[in-house]
TrEMBL record:
Its main location: membrane. It is a multi-pass membrane protein. It comes from Rhodococcus erythropolis (strain PR4 / NBRC 100887). This is Putative ABC transporter permease protein. GO terms for biological process: transmembrane transport. PROSITE patterns: ABC_TM1 (PS50928). It is found in: Cell membrane. Residues 89-273 form the ABC transmembrane type-1 domain.
Length: 285
């Protein structure tokens, strides 16, 4: 009798496994097709943009204001050959990374402190809000007095920009946890460490990940602004010096390089965000 049952059940089980495998394969093919369509559409948009740019340069708009794409490409190629492109990229990216770390870590620590202490939040939050309302450019003269001109200034500007973008997300992310849920977790026997690692941080993680989409490129923007105003090297300096010399090709080339770096950073943030959200799901189980 058992043999007959096995004979009946096994084919059904095999069919179910085959159906799941087929559905998984179809889903994978669908995702690949969607990814291919997205990539093709983006490449097509770039090609159309370059064609329109080529047509407009020299015909609709004077090349003094709008250089041809080939002229911009030649400018970038010259920078690659003489090594200035890599030198200036590093001169910008190093302080951007330093500013991001300083601003990000400060925002995480203070955001957590403000969220956990009602007294600290009540006393200091209005001052943080007032500082947030000050344009960063208005702080540059003060930062020059305190930090001088050079890499330290670029790091300072970048850190300030990043701090405010992440601080409020950490603050509201931790505050977003319902007190009833915290009480239930404590009743279940969770330690303070478990409460932080499995409740508060996963809750804040979604907010922090969302802020990275803005904080990472703005770390670069902060450095470029500082270089544009006072720098002697870096992508911001390249941009300002070419603009001052009325070199349209060099100015556009600087913008293209910055756009390429921003795109690369956006892809990196996207991959980090996916892994972080996967960790959040694991931590909440």
């Amino acid at each position: 009798m058992s043999t007959n049952i096995e004979e009946v059940v096994t084919p059904d089980r095999d069919d179910a496994v085959a159906a799941v495998a087929k559905a998984s394969m179809l889903g994978k093919k669908k995702r690949q097709r969607k990814s291919w369509i997205q990539t093709s559409s983006r490449l097509g948009a770039v090609v159309v943009f370059l064609i329109l740019w080529s047509v407009a340069a020299g015909t609709l708009v004077d090349t003094f204001y709008l250089p041809e794409p080939t002229a911009v490409a030649e400018e970038i190629w010259d920078w690659i050959l003489d090594g200035s492109l890599w030198t200036n990229i590093m001169a910008t990216m190093v302080p951007a990374a330093q500013g991001f770390l300083i601003g990000g870590i400060s925002a995480l620590v203070l955001g957590y402190l403000f969220a956990m202490s009602k007294t600290v939040s009540m006393v200091l939050e209005p001052f943080v809000a007032a500082a947030y309302g000050i344009p960063v450019v208005a702080l540059v003269p003060l930062l020059i007095l305190w930090l001088g001109i050079g890499r330290s200034l670029a790091v300072g500007v970048s850190a300030i920009v990043v701090f405010f973008l992440i601080f409020y997300n950490v603050y509201f992310g931790i505050k977003d946890v319902k007190q009833e849920f915290i009480d239930q977790v404590r009743i279940a026997g969770a330690s303070q460490w478990d409460l932080v690692m499995r409740v508060r941080l996963p809750s804040a993680l979604v907010w922090v990940v969302a802020s990275l989409k803005l904080a990472v490129p703005h770390a670069l923007v902060g450095v470029v602004v500082a270089e544009f105003l006072t720098g002697s090297e870096g992508l911001g300096f390249m941009l300002s010096s070419n603009a001052a010399q009325f070199n349209a090709a060099g100015t556009f080339a600087s913008v293209v390089v910055l756009a390429a770096i921003s795109f690369a950073l956006d892809r990196i943030v996207f991959m980090i965000s996916r892994r972080a959200l996967m960790w959040k799901e694991t931590a909440e189980r």
